[in-house]
Amino acid sequence: MFLDFLFYVFATILLVSASFALFAINPVINVLSLILAMFYSAGIFVLLRAEYLAFTLIIIYVGAVAVLFLFVVMMLNIKKRSVKEVIQQFKTPLFLFGLLLMVEIVLLLLKAKNIIYHDELSHLAFESFDGVTNAHAIGQVLYTQYFLCFQLVGLILFVAMIGAIVLVYEKRTKVRKQNIKKQLLRTKKNSLQIVKFAPIVKNPEVE
Q1: Which of 83, 86, 89, 121 has a Cα at 20 to 30 A from 147?
Q2: What whole-number distance in Å separates Cα of residue 6 and Cα of residue 165?
Q3: What percent of the chain has pLDDT over 90?
Q4: Alpha-carbon distance 155 to 60, whole Å?
Q5: What values do phi and psi take at 80, rounded to 5?
Q6: Which helix (H) or strand (E) holds 40?
Q7: pTM of this prediction?
Q8: Would you give the DSSP letter of residue 65?
Q9: Directed axis angle between helix 147-168 and helix 66-75, to 10°?
Q10: Are 66 and 34 in contact (CB under 8 A)?
């Protein structure tokens, strides 16, 4: 009973923080709300006896990805816009994503209803592994059956990192920068110049 109460508390705070992450005007508040949502998602994973996923969510997403988002948001010059302006600008993609999300939720509810009626939920979600830890079981599946998907996720994160660098990069015209190509093509002929001066003759009359 107490675990059910904790689940509903964590889920409520998770929904509220996720709503702030979506609809808050200040981008810093968006990122901080996202961090709070990840913490309570980790709490729900702990309640589901998936401790490895909980700690991975905190270490990787809160400790690295969310902090990267925060730095990018603080370095970018983002103009504050109202939620109404954002919705008007992206109303067509938002409608399509919302429709897709509703279809997925309905399909998941129908699937969950079917599983509960057939009494297969406990067998699927809480299967006992003798002598195998949480991390070991996930690793066996992740690096065998879903290895290609795991590599694709790494590629997506790599592209996201490059996108963050491109967003904060500013081309400055008044700053001298290093030209590596010009340095590599530098030779003795095009870098060394010998200048000959006429000999200096002292004038005895001046002395």
Answers
A1: 121
A2: 40
A3: 1
A4: 16
A5: -75, 130
A6: helix 27-47
A7: 0.53
A8: I
A9: 20
A10: yes
Q: What is the pLDDT of residues 84-123, one digit of tens each?
A: 666 677 678 777 877 887 887 787 777 766 654 444 444 4
User: Can you tell me which residue has the tokens 């993609």?
Assistant: 93
- What radius of gyration, in Å, describes the C-alpha atoms of the chain? 30
| Helices marked H in 61-201 | 66-75, 83-89, 91-117, 121-125, 134-142, 147-168, 180-184, 188-191
* Residue with the two structure tokens 């508390």: 9
Q: Which of 40, 39, 38, 18 is nearest to 29 (CA)?
A: 18
Architecture per CATH, domain 1-80, reads as: Up-down Bundle (1.20)
At 181, the amino acid letter reads K
**Residue of 59, 22, 19 whose CA lies nearest to 39:** 59
Extract the tokens encoding 19. Answer: 């709503």
Q: Are 52 and 133 in contact (CB under 8 A)?
A: yes
Q: Tokens 């290093």 belong to which residue?
A: 178
CA dist., res. 32 & res. 146, Å (int): 31
The H or E element containing residue 17 is helix 2-23
Q: What is the C-alpha separation between 128 and 61, in angstroms, rounded?
A: 28
